[in-house]
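User: Please predict structures.

Assistant: First:
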Amino acid sequence: MIYGKIKEKYMNKRQKLIPLNSLNLTDRFLFEEVMEDPLIHKEVLSIIFGREIPLLEKNETEKELRISPEARSVRMDVFSMDMEKTVYNTEMQKQRRADLSRRSRYYQSLTDISLLDPGIPDYSTLNDSYIIMITPFDLFGCGKYQYTFRSVCEEEPQCILEDGATRIFLNTRGRNEDEVSAELVQFLHYVEHTTDEAAEQTGSERIKHIHDRVRKVRNSEEVGVKYMQAWEEKYYEKEEARKEGARNKLKEQIKKKLEKGKTVDEIADALEESADSIQTLIKELEGD
Protein backbone atom coordinates (compact mmCIF):
# COMPACT_ATOMS: atom_id res chain seq x y z
CA MET A 1 0.00 0.00 0.00
CA ILE A 2 2.71 2.45 1.02
CA TYR A 3 4.86 1.89 -2.03
CA GLY A 4 2.31 0.82 -4.65
CA LYS A 5 2.32 4.10 -6.53
CA ILE A 6 6.09 4.49 -6.28
CA LYS A 7 6.69 0.97 -7.57
CA GLU A 8 4.28 1.49 -10.46
CA LYS A 9 6.00 4.77 -11.36
CA TYR A 10 9.43 3.13 -11.17
CA MET A 11 8.43 0.13 -13.30
CA ASN A 12 7.07 2.46 -15.96
CA LYS A 13 10.48 4.12 -16.13
CA ARG A 14 12.45 0.87 -15.86
CA GLN A 15 15.53 1.02 -18.02
CA LYS A 16 15.97 -1.70 -20.61
CA LEU A 17 18.84 -4.07 -20.24
CA ILE A 18 21.63 -3.22 -22.68
CA PRO A 19 22.50 -6.43 -24.59
CA LEU A 20 25.88 -7.93 -23.75
CA ASN A 21 26.88 -7.65 -27.43
CA SER A 22 26.30 -3.89 -27.28
CA LEU A 23 28.57 -3.21 -24.31
CA ASN A 24 31.85 -1.36 -24.81
CA LEU A 25 34.96 -1.83 -22.71
CA THR A 26 33.94 1.34 -20.88
CA ASP A 27 31.22 -0.81 -19.29
CA ARG A 28 32.70 -2.34 -16.16
CA PHE A 29 31.12 -5.77 -16.57
CA LEU A 30 32.65 -6.37 -20.00
CA PHE A 31 35.94 -4.78 -18.95
CA GLU A 32 36.34 -7.10 -15.96
CA GLU A 33 35.35 -10.21 -17.89
CA VAL A 34 37.82 -9.43 -20.67
CA MET A 35 40.66 -8.43 -18.34
CA GLU A 36 40.21 -11.55 -16.23
CA ASP A 37 42.49 -13.22 -18.76
CA PRO A 38 46.05 -12.31 -17.59
CA LEU A 39 47.39 -12.48 -21.15
CA ILE A 40 44.87 -9.86 -22.27
CA HIS A 41 45.64 -7.66 -19.28
CA LYS A 42 49.31 -8.04 -20.26
CA GLU A 43 48.49 -6.83 -23.80
CA VAL A 44 46.68 -3.79 -22.42
CA LEU A 45 49.53 -2.88 -20.08
CA SER A 46 52.07 -3.35 -22.88
CA ILE A 47 50.12 -0.83 -24.98
CA ILE A 48 49.96 1.65 -22.09
CA PHE A 49 53.66 1.41 -21.20
CA GLY A 50 54.94 1.00 -24.75
CA ARG A 51 57.00 -2.07 -23.86
CA GLU A 52 56.50 -5.73 -23.13
CA ILE A 53 55.31 -6.34 -19.58
CA PRO A 54 56.69 -9.52 -17.93
CA LEU A 55 54.15 -12.34 -17.91
CA LEU A 56 51.51 -11.56 -15.32
CA GLU A 57 50.49 -13.88 -12.56
CA LYS A 58 46.80 -14.70 -12.20
CA ASN A 59 44.56 -11.63 -12.29
CA GLU A 60 42.04 -10.84 -9.59
CA THR A 61 38.91 -8.99 -10.64
CA GLU A 62 36.80 -7.13 -8.10
CA LYS A 63 39.51 -7.65 -5.50
CA GLU A 64 38.34 -6.23 -2.18
CA LEU A 65 40.83 -4.28 -0.06
CA ARG A 66 40.01 -3.19 3.48
CA ILE A 67 42.17 -1.95 6.38
CA SER A 68 39.80 -3.28 9.06
CA PRO A 69 36.22 -4.63 9.29
CA GLU A 70 35.02 -1.14 10.24
CA ALA A 71 36.92 0.74 7.53
CA ARG A 72 35.56 1.48 4.09
CA SER A 73 36.58 -1.14 1.53
CA VAL A 74 37.23 -0.71 -2.19
CA ARG A 75 36.86 -3.19 -5.04
CA MET A 76 39.67 -3.13 -7.54
CA ASP A 77 38.53 -3.84 -11.13
CA VAL A 78 41.67 -5.74 -12.19
CA PHE A 79 44.51 -6.39 -9.75
CA SER A 80 47.66 -8.19 -10.92
CA MET A 81 51.35 -8.63 -10.30
CA ASP A 82 54.08 -9.29 -12.86
CA MET A 83 57.10 -11.56 -12.61
CA GLU A 84 59.13 -8.71 -11.13
CA LYS A 85 56.47 -8.26 -8.38
CA THR A 86 55.32 -4.92 -9.73
CA VAL A 87 51.62 -4.40 -8.93
CA TYR A 88 49.09 -3.11 -11.45
CA ASN A 89 45.59 -2.03 -10.51
CA THR A 90 43.66 -1.17 -13.67
CA GLU A 91 40.30 0.57 -13.22
CA MET A 92 37.55 1.48 -15.66
CA GLN A 93 35.72 4.64 -14.57
CA LYS A 94 32.84 5.39 -16.91
CA GLN A 95 31.12 8.04 -14.80
CA ARG A 96 32.76 11.37 -14.08
CA ARG A 97 33.21 11.89 -10.34
CA ALA A 98 34.63 14.90 -8.53
CA ASP A 99 36.60 12.70 -6.15
CA LEU A 100 38.53 10.57 -8.65
CA SER A 101 41.91 12.09 -7.83
CA ARG A 102 41.47 11.50 -4.11
CA ARG A 103 39.92 8.10 -4.79
CA SER A 104 43.14 7.11 -6.58
CA ARG A 105 45.06 8.23 -3.48
CA TYR A 106 42.92 5.96 -1.29
CA TYR A 107 43.39 3.05 -3.70
CA GLN A 108 47.13 3.60 -3.52
CA SER A 109 47.16 3.58 0.28
CA LEU A 110 45.07 0.40 0.53
CA THR A 111 47.23 -1.29 -2.09
CA ASP A 112 50.37 -0.48 -0.10
CA ILE A 113 48.87 -1.78 3.15
CA SER A 114 47.81 -5.03 1.47
CA LEU A 115 51.36 -5.62 0.21
CA LEU A 116 53.14 -5.37 3.57
CA ASP A 117 53.02 -8.22 6.05
CA PRO A 118 52.34 -7.16 9.67
CA GLY A 119 55.50 -6.35 11.61
CA ILE A 120 57.74 -5.85 8.57
CA PRO A 121 60.14 -3.02 9.57
CA ASP A 122 61.83 -2.60 6.17
CA TYR A 123 59.71 -0.52 3.79
CA SER A 124 62.18 -1.10 0.96
CA THR A 125 60.34 -4.41 0.37
CA LEU A 126 57.24 -2.48 -0.68
CA ASN A 127 56.41 -3.34 -4.29
CA ASP A 128 56.44 -0.80 -7.11
CA SER A 129 52.81 -0.16 -8.00
CA TYR A 130 50.68 1.48 -10.67
CA ILE A 131 47.12 2.70 -10.22
CA ILE A 132 45.67 3.06 -13.74
CA MET A 133 42.29 4.70 -14.35
CA ILE A 134 40.75 4.63 -17.83
CA THR A 135 38.04 7.25 -18.44
CA PRO A 136 35.88 8.30 -21.43
CA PHE A 137 36.33 11.93 -20.38
CA ASP A 138 39.17 14.37 -19.75
CA LEU A 139 39.40 14.62 -15.97
CA PHE A 140 42.04 17.37 -16.05
CA GLY A 141 40.92 19.28 -19.14
CA CYS A 142 44.34 19.53 -20.81
CA GLY A 143 43.52 17.42 -23.87
CA LYS A 144 46.01 14.65 -23.01
CA TYR A 145 45.47 10.96 -23.70
CA GLN A 146 47.65 10.10 -20.73
CA TYR A 147 48.37 11.86 -17.44
CA THR A 148 51.15 10.28 -15.35
CA PHE A 149 51.67 11.38 -11.76
CA ARG A 150 54.68 10.82 -9.51
CA SER A 151 55.78 12.78 -6.46
CA VAL A 152 58.19 15.59 -7.35
CA CYS A 153 59.90 18.31 -5.33
CA GLU A 154 58.35 21.77 -5.74
CA GLU A 155 61.68 23.51 -5.17
CA GLU A 156 63.55 21.16 -7.54
CA PRO A 157 61.14 19.68 -10.15
CA GLN A 158 63.84 17.39 -11.51
CA CYS A 159 64.06 15.72 -8.10
CA ILE A 160 61.57 12.85 -8.06
CA LEU A 161 60.57 11.07 -4.87
CA GLU A 162 61.47 7.50 -5.76
CA ASP A 163 58.76 5.84 -3.68
CA GLY A 164 57.71 3.38 -6.39
CA ALA A 165 54.14 4.68 -6.61
CA THR A 166 52.72 5.89 -9.93
CA ARG A 167 49.18 6.92 -10.84
CA ILE A 168 48.10 7.05 -14.49
CA PHE A 169 44.87 8.50 -15.86
CA LEU A 170 43.98 7.58 -19.44
CA ASN A 171 41.51 9.70 -21.40
CA THR A 172 39.82 8.14 -24.45
CA ARG A 173 39.13 11.61 -25.84
CA GLY A 174 42.61 13.11 -25.89
CA ARG A 175 43.87 15.40 -28.65
CA ASN A 176 47.68 15.06 -28.42
CA GLU A 177 48.23 12.25 -30.94
CA ASP A 178 51.75 13.49 -31.68
CA GLU A 179 52.82 13.00 -28.04
CA VAL A 180 51.76 9.40 -27.49
CA SER A 181 52.01 6.17 -29.45
CA ALA A 182 49.56 5.53 -32.29
CA GLU A 183 48.76 2.18 -30.68
CA LEU A 184 47.65 3.85 -27.43
CA VAL A 185 45.42 6.26 -29.38
CA GLN A 186 43.87 3.35 -31.29
CA PHE A 187 43.38 1.35 -28.10
CA LEU A 188 41.66 4.21 -26.27
CA HIS A 189 39.37 4.75 -29.26
CA TYR A 190 38.60 1.02 -29.26
CA VAL A 191 37.81 1.08 -25.53
CA GLU A 192 34.96 3.52 -26.16
CA HIS A 193 33.92 1.97 -29.50
CA THR A 194 34.39 -1.77 -29.00
CA THR A 195 33.25 -2.97 -32.44
CA ASP A 196 34.45 -5.34 -35.13
CA GLU A 197 35.00 -2.32 -37.40
CA ALA A 198 37.22 -0.52 -34.89
CA ALA A 199 39.29 -3.66 -34.34
CA GLU A 200 39.68 -4.28 -38.09
CA GLN A 201 40.81 -0.71 -38.76
CA THR A 202 43.69 -0.90 -36.31
CA GLY A 203 47.11 -2.13 -37.29
CA SER A 204 47.79 -3.36 -33.76
CA GLU A 205 47.98 -7.10 -33.23
CA ARG A 206 47.56 -6.52 -29.51
CA ILE A 207 44.21 -4.78 -30.03
CA LYS A 208 43.11 -7.61 -32.31
CA HIS A 209 44.00 -10.11 -29.59
CA ILE A 210 41.97 -8.08 -27.11
CA HIS A 211 39.03 -8.05 -29.52
CA ASP A 212 39.22 -11.83 -29.93
CA ARG A 213 38.76 -12.07 -26.17
CA VAL A 214 35.88 -9.56 -26.32
CA ARG A 215 34.09 -11.66 -28.93
CA LYS A 216 34.65 -14.82 -26.89
CA VAL A 217 33.14 -13.17 -23.81
CA ARG A 218 30.18 -11.79 -25.75
CA ASN A 219 29.42 -15.20 -27.27
CA SER A 220 29.72 -17.12 -24.01
CA GLU A 221 26.41 -18.46 -22.72
CA GLU A 222 27.88 -18.70 -19.22
CA VAL A 223 28.94 -15.05 -19.26
CA GLY A 224 25.53 -14.09 -20.65
CA VAL A 225 23.80 -15.72 -17.68
CA LYS A 226 26.26 -14.03 -15.30
CA TYR A 227 25.52 -10.68 -16.93
CA MET A 228 21.76 -11.12 -16.52
CA GLN A 229 22.19 -12.11 -12.88
CA ALA A 230 24.46 -9.14 -12.18
CA TRP A 231 22.00 -6.77 -13.85
CA GLU A 232 19.05 -8.23 -11.95
CA GLU A 233 20.92 -7.98 -8.64
CA LYS A 234 21.83 -4.36 -9.29
CA TYR A 235 18.25 -3.61 -10.36
CA TYR A 236 16.78 -4.97 -7.13
CA GLU A 237 19.43 -3.19 -5.05
CA LYS A 238 18.37 0.10 -6.65
CA GLU A 239 14.71 -0.74 -6.15
CA GLU A 240 15.27 -1.52 -2.47
CA ALA A 241 17.22 1.70 -2.04
CA ARG A 242 14.35 3.65 -3.64
CA LYS A 243 11.84 1.92 -1.37
CA GLU A 244 13.92 2.68 1.70
CA GLY A 245 14.26 6.29 0.63
CA ALA A 246 10.50 6.58 0.10
CA ARG A 247 9.83 4.96 3.47
CA ASN A 248 12.18 7.36 5.28
CA LYS A 249 10.58 10.33 3.52
CA LEU A 250 7.13 9.14 4.55
CA LYS A 251 8.23 8.71 8.15
CA GLU A 252 9.60 12.25 8.14
CA GLN A 253 6.25 13.56 6.89
CA ILE A 254 4.42 11.61 9.58
CA LYS A 255 6.75 12.97 12.25
CA LYS A 256 6.06 16.57 11.21
CA LYS A 257 2.30 16.01 11.23
CA LEU A 258 2.41 14.36 14.64
CA GLU A 259 4.29 17.39 15.96
CA LYS A 260 1.40 19.51 14.70
CA GLY A 261 -1.04 17.41 16.69
CA LYS A 262 -2.58 15.54 13.77
CA THR A 263 -4.38 12.25 14.45
CA VAL A 264 -3.57 8.95 12.74
CA ASP A 265 -6.70 9.19 10.61
CA GLU A 266 -5.90 12.77 9.57
CA ILE A 267 -2.35 11.80 8.63
CA ALA A 268 -3.55 8.77 6.68
CA ASP A 269 -6.02 10.90 4.77
CA ALA A 270 -3.45 13.62 4.01
CA LEU A 271 -0.79 11.14 2.82
CA GLU A 272 -3.27 8.83 1.06
CA GLU A 273 -2.20 5.81 3.09
CA SER A 274 -4.14 3.37 5.28
CA ALA A 275 -4.41 4.08 8.99
CA ASP A 276 -2.78 0.70 9.72
CA SER A 277 0.25 1.63 7.59
CA ILE A 278 0.59 4.96 9.33
CA GLN A 279 0.30 3.31 12.73
CA THR A 280 3.05 0.83 11.81
CA LEU A 281 5.38 3.66 10.81
CA ILE A 282 4.60 5.60 13.97
CA LYS A 283 5.68 2.58 16.02
CA GLU A 284 8.93 2.52 14.03
CA LEU A 285 9.46 6.21 14.77
CA GLU A 286 8.92 5.59 18.47
CA GLY A 287 11.55 2.84 18.36
CA ASP A 288 14.14 4.96 16.54
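Second:
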Amino acid sequence: MYSKASAPEYQGALTSLSVNSSLVDVLAEGTEKLRAAELSGSQREVSRSALAVAEAHRRLGHVEEADRAWKESYRAARSVGDIGAMAWALWSGGTLARQRGALALARRLLALAADMGERGGDVVVRGYSLAGMAETGRIQGDYLAVGALHERLLAEARKRGEARHTVWALEGIAQMHRNTGSYDTALAMFEEAAGIAERADDRRGRAWALRGMADIVSVRDQDPERALALLTEAEVTCREMNLSSALAYNHKMRGNVLFRASRYEEARPVYEAALEEFRTMKEPRGEALARLGLVKTLARLGRDLAGTAADLDELSRHLDRIGLRHTRDMVDKARAELGVEGIGRR
Protein backbone atom coordinates (compact mmCIF):
# COMPACT_ATOMS: atom_id res chain seq x y z
CA MET A 1 0.00 0.00 0.00
CA TYR A 2 1.41 3.36 -1.01
CA SER A 3 0.94 6.60 0.85
CA LYS A 4 0.00 9.83 -0.88
CA ALA A 5 2.94 11.29 -2.79
CA SER A 6 4.87 13.94 -0.90
CA ALA A 7 7.45 16.56 -1.82
CA PRO A 8 10.23 16.30 0.81
CA GLU A 9 12.24 18.98 -0.97
CA TYR A 10 9.67 21.52 0.28
CA GLN A 11 10.72 21.97 3.90
CA GLY A 12 10.38 24.28 6.87
CA ALA A 13 7.83 27.02 6.23
CA LEU A 14 7.07 25.45 2.83
CA THR A 15 5.84 22.01 3.94
CA SER A 16 2.28 22.96 2.99
CA LEU A 17 3.30 22.83 -0.69
CA SER A 18 2.46 19.58 -2.45
CA VAL A 19 4.09 17.53 -5.17
CA ASN A 20 1.41 18.94 -7.50
CA SER A 21 1.92 22.61 -6.65
CA SER A 22 2.46 24.82 -9.68
CA LEU A 23 6.13 25.62 -10.00
CA VAL A 24 5.30 29.28 -10.49
CA ASP A 25 3.50 29.21 -7.13
CA VAL A 26 6.39 27.31 -5.52
CA LEU A 27 8.85 29.91 -6.79
CA ALA A 28 6.75 32.82 -5.57
CA GLU A 29 6.16 31.38 -2.09
CA GLY A 30 9.71 30.08 -1.79
CA THR A 31 11.15 33.48 -2.69
CA GLU A 32 8.89 35.18 -0.15
CA LYS A 33 9.90 32.76 2.63
CA LEU A 34 13.56 33.05 1.66
CA ARG A 35 13.49 36.83 2.04
CA ALA A 36 11.77 36.51 5.41
CA ALA A 37 14.34 33.96 6.58
CA GLU A 38 17.21 36.19 5.49
CA LEU A 39 15.72 39.10 7.43
CA SER A 40 15.21 36.97 10.53
CA GLY A 41 18.74 35.57 10.37
CA SER A 42 17.58 31.94 10.55
CA GLN A 43 20.12 30.06 8.43
CA ARG A 44 18.17 26.80 8.69
CA GLU A 45 15.13 28.47 7.15
CA VAL A 46 17.32 30.16 4.54
CA SER A 47 18.62 26.73 3.55
CA ARG A 48 15.15 25.18 3.36
CA SER A 49 13.58 28.05 1.44
CA ALA A 50 16.52 28.34 -0.96
CA LEU A 51 16.19 24.62 -1.71
CA ALA A 52 12.58 25.06 -2.83
CA VAL A 53 13.56 28.11 -4.88
CA ALA A 54 16.38 26.13 -6.51
CA GLU A 55 14.08 23.25 -7.42
CA ALA A 56 11.40 25.54 -8.83
CA HIS A 57 13.96 27.39 -10.96
CA ARG A 58 15.52 24.10 -12.13
CA ARG A 59 12.22 22.57 -13.21
CA LEU A 60 11.23 25.80 -14.93
CA GLY A 61 14.50 25.74 -16.87
CA HIS A 62 16.08 28.77 -15.15
CA VAL A 63 19.59 27.34 -14.97
CA GLU A 64 21.60 30.26 -13.58
CA GLU A 65 18.99 31.09 -10.93
CA ALA A 66 18.80 27.46 -9.84
CA ASP A 67 22.59 27.30 -9.56
CA ARG A 68 22.70 30.35 -7.30
CA ALA A 69 19.85 29.09 -5.11
CA TRP A 70 21.18 25.59 -4.37
CA LYS A 71 24.55 27.04 -3.48
CA GLU A 72 22.90 29.53 -1.14
CA SER A 73 21.01 26.64 0.45
CA TYR A 74 24.24 24.69 0.94
CA ARG A 75 26.15 27.64 2.41
CA ALA A 76 23.37 28.38 4.90
CA ALA A 77 23.14 24.73 5.96
CA ARG A 78 26.91 24.47 6.36
CA SER A 79 27.02 27.61 8.50
CA VAL A 80 24.89 25.86 11.15
CA GLY A 81 26.29 22.35 10.65
CA ASP A 82 23.01 20.90 9.35
CA ILE A 83 24.25 17.79 7.51
CA GLY A 84 20.79 16.77 6.31
CA ALA A 85 20.10 20.18 4.77
CA MET A 86 23.57 20.14 3.18
CA ALA A 87 22.68 16.78 1.61
CA TRP A 88 19.45 18.15 0.15
CA ALA A 89 21.26 21.14 -1.34
CA LEU A 90 23.89 18.87 -2.91
CA TRP A 91 21.11 16.66 -4.31
CA SER A 92 19.57 19.71 -5.95
CA GLY A 93 22.94 20.81 -7.33
CA GLY A 94 23.69 17.33 -8.64
CA THR A 95 20.32 17.07 -10.31
CA LEU A 96 20.85 20.46 -11.94
CA ALA A 97 24.30 19.38 -13.13
CA ARG A 98 22.80 16.31 -14.80
CA GLN A 99 20.13 18.45 -16.43
CA ARG A 100 22.87 20.75 -17.77
CA GLY A 101 24.86 17.83 -19.16
CA ALA A 102 27.70 18.12 -16.62
CA LEU A 103 27.52 14.40 -15.87
CA ALA A 104 30.82 13.97 -14.01
CA LEU A 105 29.93 16.86 -11.70
CA ALA A 106 26.46 15.39 -11.23
CA ARG A 107 27.90 12.08 -10.06
CA ARG A 108 30.25 13.80 -7.61
CA LEU A 109 27.59 16.01 -6.06
CA LEU A 110 25.03 13.22 -5.83
CA ALA A 111 27.56 10.86 -4.26
CA LEU A 112 28.37 13.51 -1.64
CA ALA A 113 24.65 14.03 -1.04
CA ALA A 114 24.06 10.30 -0.55
CA ASP A 115 26.96 10.08 1.89
CA MET A 116 25.80 13.09 3.89
CA GLY A 117 22.24 11.79 3.89
CA GLU A 118 23.43 8.52 5.35
CA ARG A 119 25.61 10.24 7.97
CA GLY A 120 22.75 12.57 8.86
CA GLY A 121 20.23 9.75 9.14
CA ASP A 122 17.99 11.11 6.37
CA VAL A 123 16.94 8.01 4.44
CA VAL A 124 14.88 10.04 1.96
CA VAL A 125 17.65 12.32 0.68
CA ARG A 126 19.98 9.33 0.60
CA GLY A 127 17.49 7.46 -1.58
CA TYR A 128 16.86 10.44 -3.84
CA SER A 129 20.60 10.96 -4.28
CA LEU A 130 21.28 7.32 -5.10
CA ALA A 131 18.39 7.42 -7.55
CA GLY A 132 19.98 10.47 -9.14
CA MET A 133 23.26 8.61 -9.51
CA ALA A 134 21.42 5.68 -11.09
CA GLU A 135 19.63 7.99 -13.52
CA THR A 136 22.89 9.70 -14.46
CA GLY A 137 24.42 6.32 -15.31
CA ARG A 138 21.30 5.28 -17.20
CA ILE A 139 21.23 8.28 -19.51
CA GLN A 140 24.90 7.62 -20.25
CA GLY A 141 24.00 4.07 -21.28
CA ASP A 142 25.78 2.35 -18.35
CA TYR A 143 22.96 -0.13 -17.82
CA LEU A 144 25.13 -2.87 -16.33
CA ALA A 145 26.61 -0.45 -13.83
CA VAL A 146 23.33 1.02 -12.60
CA GLY A 147 20.74 -1.69 -13.26
CA ALA A 148 21.26 -3.36 -9.89
CA LEU A 149 21.14 0.00 -8.10
CA HIS A 150 17.84 0.83 -9.77
CA GLU A 151 16.39 -2.51 -8.67
CA ARG A 152 17.63 -2.06 -5.08
CA LEU A 153 16.16 1.41 -4.86
CA LEU A 154 12.86 0.14 -6.23
CA ALA A 155 12.76 -2.59 -3.59
CA GLU A 156 13.53 -0.07 -0.83
CA ALA A 157 10.85 2.33 -2.05
CA ARG A 158 8.25 -0.44 -2.27
CA LYS A 159 9.10 -1.59 1.25
CA ARG A 160 8.60 1.92 2.63
CA GLY A 161 5.45 2.45 0.59
CA GLU A 162 6.94 5.62 -0.87
CA ALA A 163 4.93 6.21 -4.01
CA ARG A 164 6.91 8.98 -5.66
CA HIS A 165 10.25 7.19 -5.32
CA THR A 166 8.69 3.92 -6.50
CA VAL A 167 7.36 5.64 -9.61
CA TRP A 168 10.78 7.15 -10.38
CA ALA A 169 12.50 3.78 -10.02
CA LEU A 170 9.92 1.97 -12.14
CA GLU A 171 10.24 4.56 -14.90
CA GLY A 172 14.05 4.35 -14.89
CA ILE A 173 14.06 0.55 -15.14
CA ALA A 174 11.30 0.64 -17.75
CA GLN A 175 13.37 3.01 -19.88
CA MET A 176 16.31 0.62 -19.81
CA HIS A 177 14.05 -2.24 -20.89
CA ARG A 178 12.63 -0.07 -23.67
CA ASN A 179 16.10 0.86 -24.91
CA THR A 180 17.18 -2.79 -25.03
CA GLY A 181 14.06 -3.90 -26.91
CA SER A 182 12.07 -5.50 -24.05
CA TYR A 183 8.93 -3.58 -24.96
CA ASP A 184 6.40 -5.76 -23.13
CA THR A 185 8.28 -5.48 -19.84
CA ALA A 186 8.83 -1.75 -20.33
CA LEU A 187 5.15 -1.09 -21.02
CA ALA A 188 4.03 -3.10 -18.00
CA MET A 189 6.37 -1.08 -15.76
CA PHE A 190 5.33 2.27 -17.21
CA GLU A 191 1.68 1.25 -16.71
CA GLU A 192 2.36 0.25 -13.11
CA ALA A 193 4.13 3.56 -12.52
CA ALA A 194 1.19 5.47 -14.00
CA GLY A 195 -1.25 3.56 -11.80
CA ILE A 196 0.73 4.13 -8.59
CA ALA A 197 1.20 7.81 -9.45
CA GLU A 198 -2.52 8.26 -10.08
CA ARG A 199 -3.52 6.60 -6.79
CA ALA A 200 -0.91 8.60 -4.89
CA ASP A 201 -1.92 11.87 -6.61
CA ASP A 202 1.52 12.34 -8.16
CA ARG A 203 0.62 14.19 -11.34
CA ARG A 204 4.23 14.83 -12.37
CA GLY A 205 5.13 11.16 -12.07
CA ARG A 206 2.05 10.15 -14.02
CA ALA A 207 2.87 12.60 -16.83
CA TRP A 208 6.32 11.05 -17.26
CA ALA A 209 4.84 7.54 -17.18
CA LEU A 210 2.30 8.44 -19.87
CA ARG A 211 5.13 9.69 -22.05
CA GLY A 212 6.88 6.33 -21.64
CA MET A 213 3.69 4.45 -22.47
CA ALA A 214 3.21 6.57 -25.59
CA ASP A 215 6.71 5.69 -26.75
CA ILE A 216 6.08 1.94 -26.44
CA VAL A 217 2.64 2.12 -28.03
CA SER A 218 4.18 3.96 -30.97
CA VAL A 219 7.15 1.59 -31.39
CA ARG A 220 5.64 -1.79 -30.51
CA ASP A 221 2.01 -1.38 -31.53
CA GLN A 222 2.49 1.17 -34.31
CA ASP A 223 -0.57 2.99 -32.98
CA PRO A 224 0.23 6.70 -33.38
CA GLU A 225 -3.25 7.93 -32.50
CA ARG A 226 -3.27 6.24 -29.09
CA ALA A 227 0.29 7.42 -28.48
CA LEU A 228 -0.63 11.00 -29.35
CA ALA A 229 -3.67 10.81 -27.05
CA LEU A 230 -1.45 9.72 -24.15
CA LEU A 231 0.95 12.58 -24.84
CA THR A 232 -1.93 15.06 -24.99
CA GLU A 233 -3.15 13.87 -21.59
CA ALA A 234 0.34 14.27 -20.15
CA GLU A 235 0.76 17.70 -21.74
CA VAL A 236 -2.25 19.04 -19.84
CA THR A 237 -0.49 18.25 -16.56
CA CYS A 238 2.82 19.68 -17.78
CA ARG A 239 1.18 22.97 -18.68
CA GLU A 240 -0.93 23.22 -15.53
CA MET A 241 2.10 22.61 -13.32
CA ASN A 242 4.53 24.60 -15.49
CA LEU A 243 6.78 21.56 -15.98
CA SER A 244 9.04 23.07 -18.64
CA SER A 245 11.46 20.16 -18.98
CA ALA A 246 8.75 17.50 -18.97
CA LEU A 247 6.80 19.49 -21.55
CA ALA A 248 9.83 19.75 -23.86
CA TYR A 249 10.42 16.00 -23.63
CA ASN A 250 6.72 15.45 -24.28
CA HIS A 251 6.98 17.53 -27.46
CA LYS A 252 10.12 15.69 -28.52
CA MET A 253 8.28 12.38 -28.10
CA ARG A 254 5.35 13.73 -30.11
CA GLY A 255 7.83 14.39 -32.89
CA ASN A 256 9.09 10.80 -32.58
CA VAL A 257 5.56 9.41 -32.84
CA LEU A 258 4.81 11.47 -35.94
CA PHE A 259 8.16 10.54 -37.51
CA ARG A 260 7.54 6.81 -36.97
CA ALA A 261 4.16 7.22 -38.65
CA SER A 262 5.92 8.84 -41.67
CA ARG A 263 4.09 12.11 -40.96
CA TYR A 264 7.23 14.13 -41.59
CA GLU A 265 5.61 17.48 -42.39
CA GLU A 266 3.83 17.34 -39.04
CA ALA A 267 6.93 16.15 -37.18
CA ARG A 268 9.18 18.96 -38.39
CA PRO A 269 7.60 21.92 -36.51
CA VAL A 270 7.16 19.77 -33.40
CA TYR A 271 10.87 18.92 -33.31
CA GLU A 272 11.76 22.56 -34.01
CA ALA A 273 9.60 23.72 -31.10
CA ALA A 274 11.09 21.11 -28.75
CA LEU A 275 14.61 22.09 -29.83
CA GLU A 276 13.94 25.72 -28.99
CA GLU A 277 12.47 24.74 -25.61
CA PHE A 278 15.56 22.71 -24.72
CA ARG A 279 17.89 25.48 -25.86
CA THR A 280 16.02 28.03 -23.77
CA MET A 281 16.49 25.93 -20.62
CA LYS A 282 20.05 24.91 -21.62
CA GLU A 283 19.39 21.18 -21.44
CA PRO A 284 21.95 19.57 -23.80
CA ARG A 285 20.63 15.99 -23.72
CA GLY A 286 17.14 17.01 -24.74
CA GLU A 287 18.57 19.39 -27.31
CA ALA A 288 20.63 16.57 -28.83
CA LEU A 289 17.62 14.26 -29.04
CA ALA A 290 15.46 16.93 -30.64
CA ARG A 291 18.26 17.79 -33.10
CA LEU A 292 18.58 14.15 -34.06
CA GLY A 293 14.86 13.88 -34.70
CA LEU A 294 14.91 17.04 -36.78
CA VAL A 295 17.91 15.89 -38.86
CA LYS A 296 16.17 12.60 -39.63
CA THR A 297 12.95 14.39 -40.49
CA LEU A 298 14.68 16.84 -42.84
CA ALA A 299 16.41 13.90 -44.53
CA ARG A 300 13.05 12.24 -45.14
CA LEU A 301 11.78 15.53 -46.55
CA GLY A 302 14.56 15.58 -49.15
CA ARG A 303 17.66 17.07 -47.52
CA ASP A 304 20.79 16.12 -49.47
CA LEU A 305 22.91 13.26 -48.13
CA ALA A 306 26.04 15.40 -47.64
CA GLY A 307 24.15 17.92 -45.49
CA THR A 308 22.55 15.16 -43.44
CA ALA A 309 25.93 13.48 -42.90
CA ALA A 310 27.50 16.77 -41.81
CA ASP A 311 24.71 17.36 -39.30
CA LEU A 312 25.15 13.88 -37.84
CA ASP A 313 28.94 14.33 -37.64
CA GLU A 314 28.55 17.54 -35.67
CA LEU A 315 25.97 15.93 -33.38
CA SER A 316 28.28 12.97 -32.75
CA ARG A 317 31.10 15.26 -31.67
CA HIS A 318 28.75 17.10 -29.32
CA LEU A 319 27.59 13.84 -27.73
CA ASP A 320 31.16 12.62 -27.33
CA ARG A 321 31.97 15.81 -25.43
CA ILE A 322 29.17 15.36 -22.91
CA GLY A 323 29.48 11.58 -22.63
CA LEU A 324 26.02 10.42 -23.75
CA ARG A 325 26.91 7.05 -25.21
CA HIS A 326 23.39 5.74 -25.71
CA THR A 327 22.34 8.84 -27.66
CA ARG A 328 25.63 8.61 -29.57
CA ASP A 329 24.68 5.07 -30.59
CA MET A 330 21.35 6.43 -31.83
CA VAL A 331 23.24 8.76 -34.17
CA ASP A 332 25.19 5.83 -35.62
CA LYS A 333 21.93 3.96 -36.20
CA ALA A 334 20.54 7.05 -37.93
CA ARG A 335 23.50 7.03 -40.35
CA ALA A 336 22.60 3.50 -41.44
CA GLU A 337 18.88 4.27 -41.50
CA LEU A 338 19.37 7.34 -43.70
CA GLY A 339 22.00 5.80 -45.96
CA VAL A 340 24.82 8.21 -45.14
CA GLU A 341 27.38 5.82 -43.67
CA GLY A 342 30.86 6.75 -44.88
CA ILE A 343 29.74 10.16 -46.20
CA GLY A 344 31.65 13.11 -44.76
CA ARG A 345 32.50 11.30 -41.53
CA ARG A 346 35.74 12.27 -39.81
